[in-house]
């Protein structure tokens, strides 16, 4: 999918924007995307610890009173943590990562038109999966 620029052309002279990869790669993630990455990573770390403690309590209470050896309780806890705890705790990080990297990136550009000199902010969409499909804009 080719990159899409917003605005598509210079607002002053109307020269269409078509920046190469070397320029587009300098586009930065908006502050909301960085905030989303920070919050989702923090939530994932906290959920990792929380699910560890909760699943340990759950496995312990479910196997209390049985004559399972201590090692078997540990194996049960290991599988519960790998199959339930890790996916549950990594889900917010994965969702936040996908959302943040799907956002339009901010690019400061100078108009390529002759003798225009307009400098401004341009949004770059379309490298990677866009957060908003093109037909809804
Ligand atoms: Zn211009």
Report on the structure:
The protein has 137 residues and is mainly α. The chain has 2 domains: 1-30 and 104-137, no CATH class; 31-102. Helices cover 51% and strands 12% of the residues. It has helices at residues 21-24, 31-63, 70-102, and strands spanning 4-6, 105-110, 119-125. The protein has a 3-stranded antiparallel beta sheet, with no helix packed on it. Helix 2 runs antiparallel to helix 3 (70-102). The protein is rod-shaped, with a radius of gyration of 24 Å. The model has no long low-confidence stretch (mean pLDDT 90). Residues 10, 12-13, 15, 111, 113, 116, 118 line the site of zinc ion.
Properties at a glance:
single chain; 137 residues; mainly alpha; 2 domains; three-stranded antiparallel beta sheet; 3 strands; 12% strand; binds zinc ion
Give the SSE map.
Blueprint: E1 4-6, H1 21-24, H2 31-63, H3 70-102, E2 105-110, E3 119-125
Antiparallel strand pairs: 1-3, 2-3
């Amino acid at each position: 999918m080719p990159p899409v620029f917003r605005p598509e052309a210079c607002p002053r002279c109307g020269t269409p924007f078509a920046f190469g990869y070397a320029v587009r790669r300098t586009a930065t993630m908006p502050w909301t995307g960085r905030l989303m990455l920070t919050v989702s990573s923090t939530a994932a770390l906290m959920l990792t610890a929380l699910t560890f403690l909760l699943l340990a309590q759950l496995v312990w209470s479910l196997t209390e009173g049985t004559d399972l050896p201590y090692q078997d309780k540990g194996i049960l806890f290991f599988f519960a943590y790998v199959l339930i705890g890790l996916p549950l705790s990594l889900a917010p990080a994965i969702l936040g990562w996908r959302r943040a990297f799907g956002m339009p990136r901010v690019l400061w550009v100078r108009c390529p038109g002759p003798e225009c000199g307009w400098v401004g902010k341009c949004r770059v969409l379309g490298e990677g999966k866009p957060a908003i499909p093109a037909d809804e804009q």
